[in-house]
Amino acid sequence: MSLDRVCRMEKLLSIISIIICALSLGGCLASTTSPVGINCDFSKEKPLRDMPLDCQGR
Fold first, then answer.
1. 35-48 b/e with 16+ CB inside 10 Å = b?
2. Could you give the CA distance from residue 17 to residue 33 in angstroms, rounded to a whole number?
3. How far is CA 44 from CA 16, 34, 51, in A?
4. Which tens digits make up the pLDDT trace of 27-43?
5. 28: three-class secondary structure by DSSP
6. Euclidean distance between the first and final Cα of the chain, in Å?
7. Do 51 and 40 contact (CB within 8 A), yes or no?
8. What is the pLDDT of residue 13?
9. Are 52 and 32 a contacting pair, CB within 8 Å?
10. How far is it, in rounded angstroms, from Cα 20 to Cα 22?
11. What is the pTM of this model?
12. Helix H segments across the chain?
């Protein structure tokens, strides 16, 4: 393989890695936010670990 081809492959691999990382982190963020608002209703006796992160104080 030529050096130019190796450089292109490394660049493509780094771009793909960044995209996968961004999508993964975006998925984590989406799962911890609520589109309607935060519902911290402690009267339902829901376990703290099942409540949104904002209700857990993190």
1. eeeeeeeeeeeeee
2. 25
3. 44, 18, 11
4. 766 665 555 566 677 77
5. helix
6. 50
7. yes
8. 95
9. yes
10. 6
11. 0.47
12. 3-32, 53-56
Q: Measuring CA to CA, which residue among 43, 40, 42, 44 is closest to residue 52?
A: 40
Q: What length is written for the chain?
A: 58
Question: Is 55:40 a contact under the CB 8 Å cutoff?
Answer: yes
The span from the CA of 14 to the CA of 10, in Å, is 6
Give every residue of the chain whose pLDDT is below 50, as ranges.
none
Q: What is the pLDDT of residue 31?
A: 60
Question: Contact 40/54 with Cβ under 8 angstroms?
Answer: yes
The pair of structure tokens assigned to 3 is 């050096």
The span from the CA of 24 to the CA of 20, in Å, is: 6
